[in-house]
Amino acid sequence: MRPRGRHVLGGTAILVSAVVFLVPFAFVVLTAFKDRAQAAELDFSWPHQFRFARNLVEVVTARDYTLVIAFANSAILTVASVAVMVVLAAMTAFVLQRRPSRWTRLVDFLVLSGLIIPPAVVPTIRVLQGLGLFRTMTGLILVEVAFGLSFCVLLFRNFLATVPRELDDSAVIDGAGPLRVFFLVVFPLMRSVAVTAVLVQSVVVYNDFTNPLYFLPGDRNVTVQLTLYNFQSQYGTQYNLLFTNILLITVPPLLAFLVANRRIVAGMTAGAVKG
């Protein structure tokens, strides 16, 4: 392709990305700054009166500070789920890559199935009820770990294929056991991929709507994404408050992406190109 053609293609891609991502975000910001009457028009116009501070106070204090509780619940859910998910996926990938056996193909099939087969809600609820974990944060954490484990395993295993086995052998000769080999030798080498998995899965868990809705019902168990559902059902046509709520819960993952964008790309590239 000629250089001019590449520039045209790149400019077109940037323009399309701006229209798809920036225009909706600008609409959310403008609507969050409007009063109730103007926001109900749902048009792309400049606010007549800037009411963001008032809208912010009403959103935060609505329903006995439900949004504050939701942020706390989402923080607990995200940190716990991602921590368990990353460590467990790294250990699983280490065993599959370094200790192949007759069960390896079956485990690979199950890992790929986790990416392809959609989750079954009713059987999962029955299992959680049988374990006494339905409507509990622990049960939802286990669900999030199970649904995100396949992606992390594939990511870690693809990167582990680039790590020389001689490092493992040297540690074993020095008297290190399997756990020490993994945590002291191999896992530190996977830092770039681990950062990528943490950031990607944190956004996925934080933005999850369906799993908290099905497996963690209740007003006190609400997460940030569920506040959109509850808030809209409560206020109906008060779009200024609804879009203010959307703006508040969009800020954390947006900041995480802006800060760690290069790390995400580096981790994904390390696992894809070297593998």
TrEMBL record:
<feature type="transmembrane region" description="Helical">
    <location>
        <begin position="12"/>
        <end position="33"/>
    </location>
</feature>
<keyword id="KW-0813">Transport</keyword>
<feature type="transmembrane region" description="Helical">
    <location>
        <begin position="239"/>
        <end position="260"/>
    </location>
</feature>
<dbReference type="Pfam" id="PF00528">
    <property type="entry name" value="BPD_transp_1"/>
</dbReference>
<feature type="domain" description="ABC transmembrane type-1">
    <location>
        <begin position="71"/>
        <end position="260"/>
    </location>
</feature>
<feature type="transmembrane region" description="Helical">
    <location>
        <begin position="137"/>
        <end position="160"/>
    </location>
</feature>
<comment type="similarity">
    <text>Belongs to the binding-protein-dependent transport system permease family.</text>
</comment>
<protein>
    <submittedName>
        <fullName>Carbohydrate ABC transporter membrane protein 2 (CUT1 family)</fullName>
    </submittedName>
</protein>
<feature type="transmembrane region" description="Helical">
    <location>
        <begin position="181"/>
        <end position="206"/>
    </location>
</feature>
<keyword id="KW-0812">Transmembrane</keyword>
<feature type="transmembrane region" description="Helical">
    <location>
        <begin position="65"/>
        <end position="94"/>
    </location>
</feature>
<keyword id="KW-1133">Transmembrane helix</keyword>
<keyword id="KW-1003">Cell membrane</keyword>
<keyword id="KW-0472">Membrane</keyword>
<dbReference type="GO" id="GO:0005886">
    <property type="term" value="C:plasma membrane"/>
</dbReference>
<dbReference type="InterPro" id="IPR035906">
    <property type="entry name" value="MetI-like_sf"/>
</dbReference>
<dbReference type="GO" id="GO:0055085">
    <property type="term" value="P:transmembrane transport"/>
</dbReference>
<dbReference type="InterPro" id="IPR000515">
    <property type="entry name" value="MetI-like"/>
</dbReference>
<feature type="transmembrane region" description="Helical">
    <location>
        <begin position="106"/>
        <end position="125"/>
    </location>
</feature>
